[in-house]
Known about the structure:
about 50% helix, alpha+beta, about 160 residues
Amino acid sequence: xxxxxxTNLSLDSxxxxxxxxxxxxxxxxxxxxxxxxxxxxxSVSSAHKRIAKKQTDLVWMRSVAPQFAGLGPAHDSNGxxxxxxVDRSAREAGLASALAGxxxxxxxxxxVRLSRAPFDTLIPWLDRLSQQNGIRVDxxxxxxxxxxxxxxxAIVLHMD
Length: 160
């Protein structure tokens, strides 16, 4: 049995128009293949450059890390950060509702804001922080919150 499409074709048996289309199609296929190869090479080169840049950045970060090691949050001998100690002790002292926010204040420092805090609770709390945790008050701004005995305070604490 002979298949209808299985014929012996040669370029000579094709018409001029078919030969031209075959040559143009072959040329386009070769150009397309070259384009894909160039794009892949470009992508690989770009990836190698990105990796080299990231490796350079990593080496730099490792070299400067010791300089910044002291800028992280301060910790006590139990490994607790200043923020955790201040937050926990303020809640224990009954100042949880007065805590308005906190943010780092330099190496080993924490700036704490209290709103409408009872003055008679605030001062003993600061004393306990100092006595029990070695935390000192670097600066404090305390002003009346309007009602007798209530104050707004901005306090910068530092762990030794």
